[in-house]
Amino acid sequence: MASLEQLNTGFAFTHLRGYTTRPHEFHTRRSIAKPRTFLSLSSQTHQDHSSTLTSHSGHKLPFLEEITNLCDSGNLHEALAFLQVDPQKDALSNSLTIKEALGMLIQACGQRYDVETGRELHELVRKSIHYCNDSVLNTRLISMYAMCGWPKDSLRLFRSCQRKNLFMWNAVISGLTRNELYGDAILMFEEMISSTEFLPDNFTFPCVIKACSVLVDVSLGKVVHGMAIKMGLVFDVFVGNALITMYGKYHFVEEASKVFHLMPERNLVSWNSVIWGFVESGFSRESFKMLTEMLEGEDELLPDVATTVTLLPLCARELNVGMGRGLHGLTVKLGQSADLRVSNALVDMYLKSGYLLEGQMLFDKNVNKNVVSWNTIIGNFSAKGETCIVYDYLRKMQSQWKEVKVDEVTVLNVLPVCSDKSQVLSLKELHGYSLRHGLHHDELVANALVAAYAKCEMLRSAELVFQYIETQTVNSWNALIGGYAQNNDPGKALDSFIQMTNSRLQPDSFSVGSLLSACSRLKSLKHGKQIHGFAVRNGIADTFIDISLLNLYSQCGKPLSARLLFDRMKDKTLVSWNAMITSYSQNGLPNEALDLFRKLVSAGIRPFEIATVSALGACSQQSTLLLGREVHCYAIKALLAEDAYVSCTIIDMYAKCGCIKESRRVFDGLRFKDVASWNAVIAAYGAYGNAEEAVKLFEKMSNELDQIPDDLTFLGILMACSHAGLVEKGLKYFNQMDMYQINPELEHYACLIDMLSRAGRLEDAMRIVNDMPMEPDARIWGSLLSSCRTFGALKMGEEIADKLLKMEPDKAENYVLLSNLYAGSGKWDDVRKVRQVMKEKNLHKDAGCSWIELGGKLYSFIVGDNLLPEAQEIRRMWRRLEEKISILGYKPNTSCVLHELEEQEKIKLLQGHSEKLAICFGLLKTNSGTVLRVYKNLRICIDCHNAAKLISKAVQRDIIVRDNKRFHHFRDGCCSCGDYW
């Protein structure tokens, strides 16, 4: 007997017992599709045995001709009946002829999956004295049972044979592999090499290698490879092809390539196998290179359908339409384009690459469409969100119901476009079709229906579908939990999560990620931490959960916690970088956001739209023009500048950096201007105080270009009218919202009320507050209170302050507004009372802070700051400026100093305002003609505003000051705001 020691492999197979319950107890599996095998027992394959089945005369006898004809036509039962006729006639006296007929008929039963006739033949052989122990017939019976999907019967027959040869062992191993009993096949292989004298041959190894491939046991596969090398069979083309396929499935492309290049003989299967391995492992360049080598090689092989349908999906994945077109041309030249598999792959390639017209034309030209053809085109347009086109193709598909029927894949492809309330009717139609045709029993369809109803905000329907799922899996629960999460119902999401765990199902990363997303939307840090703890305790961790946790801590205002989590992540994907950069940007930490963006680029990772938008947003927050321009340049080089979100953010960045001309230049340069880009430029002009240009753009957008304004468009134009005091125009635009069927939101009312109150129409503003359909928020009351101070409406201001302080009792800014109201009316006792309350509550007013960017560096100034290195120079510069602007009519306006001080002390305080310090520093450090851009965290005061106007005239400089409300562009003694702010 051969042993492992004789084969010198040094590997024990005892651990393979784990693949099945008992070594020789096999499962029964009925095959549906015709399986493939590496082993053939046809007369051509085993000439040494099957030669005995030929008649002595050397030619076919009439009897065998009749059996052959009946087998070829599929009349196997009739052939069996013919075989059982009285054997006293002419040729029937030849036992070899009968044996050949039996073998032929048994083989036909396997090919036709006719196990019943096969069993009758088995019974004939078993009862025959001459044939019961015939190795050839028994081998064919073993193969027949395996081919018909009865591996248990195949094994039982094998065990009953008294004399076994290598062909029988190959037949049973091949049969087990054919029926996907891969662990059992390997155990049978172990038994053969350890308990018999037979050595595996070039038919044994391909079956065993395939079993190793499916079981994903690379160590075992390498041992079998070693055995093939030692036995000199590794150079066999069939063994080599099996090894290439195995290594390709493991993504061991180097090993697969080595086997391929060492093969002395290669066929088309060899080339297809190695190309497939490269494709599966993501080596696109190498895949196409192998195709080129095959075409230019000495073997003179041409790609077949298998080659084409392997490479076309790669072209689709890589969006390499150039190579796809080349393959398309090749299929036409080789006459493959009419093949349905090739046609479907070409349609898929063109659609995924964005060449929709070409894909549709190919689809329409295909006259032999199958369900895969329809699913391909429907699935691609569904992925692109083309709802109308998806439904159109679905209707056309249903009109051809005699040729092709909608299946589970079709329903799964259509359901994603049913993603909002407008698609509820279509969703119900799909659900009804699934019920009528039994498709709802498919787990994926049922789960997709739950998810679709949830997206359409029909949670009750989602719950009903879920309840009728026979076997609720983790994926089913995930669909329901995800639905609750999408609809901001974390309570029900958590309840479902608990029910799932109680039903002894282990939540996966999707379950946890959905819950974390729900908590992020509701900013529920408490629940989010509980879920985080659950994930840690149960070892549930992956990139999806890490990203969800980053978003949770970011949305809940915990960027430090998010950064700690980010730093601990082993594999930082681009999405995690994006999430962290966005976290810093959204939480008012622009320096940290920009620093992380630099690290991302330095790490050699190419940022995409989200990271670029966040970096531009950080530049906007800090008004760092130089850095903003650098990010803009990066976006252009990375071909991101035409992206709708990126372009809008660039427009906003330049506007917030005081470069309205740059904003307009970017806007004018856009090839396609959508509503978002119009909104961005209108808002930019509004914040800059150029309401006239904002109005022109709005009129052009809505009247000339037939662009339909949305809620953000009206928000921008109302803000522009508010900043410019265009009350009547603002009221007109507010009333126009109804014409566009836009319901005003709280933000629109806030703009309208701010516009009226700035214009002194406080009673009208209060009337709107009382009549609007929602409760006013703190912003509205704060705006009204500020205007009450401006116009001296003490009584109304006190009433408003009472409401504001009840709403936000711990916000220092509200007490400051009330204090300013009293100070403006000279009620200093009340001022002291308010400040005493602030002291008791430990509330502090934000100190006035301004900053200026020079040479890419930010310089900050705090009101009254005398600790700066350049403090003496700044004071001297101010004294020189004060002399010049005094000649032009400047007088300190102490009315904006809301403290009970002597006049000279008030003047001294005015001299230390942060914007004055920043302007003086900018004049000291820049050359003549340079535009000064100063940014302030609070509103600019009247005195600083007057001083800046006159300074711009005295020094012939443009000075742009952005406060926390708007821009002021000072030039030649005037301001862009028209002294209205």
Automatic annotation (TrEMBL):
Family: Belongs to the PPR family. PCMP-H subfamily.
Domain of life: Eukaryota
PROSITE patterns in the record: PPR (PS51375)
PPR repeat copies, ranges: 165-195, 236-270, 473-507, 573-607, 674-704
Assigned keywords, A-Z: Repeat
Protein source organism: Erythroxylum novogranatense
Protein name as catalogued: DYW domain-containing protein
GO MF term set: RNA binding; zinc ion binding
Example GO BP: RNA modification
Domain DYW: 889-981
Pfam families: DYW_deaminase, E_motif, PPR, PPR_2
InterPro entries the record matches: DYW_dom, E_motif, PPR_At4g14850-like_plant, PPR_rpt, TPR-like_helical_dom_sf
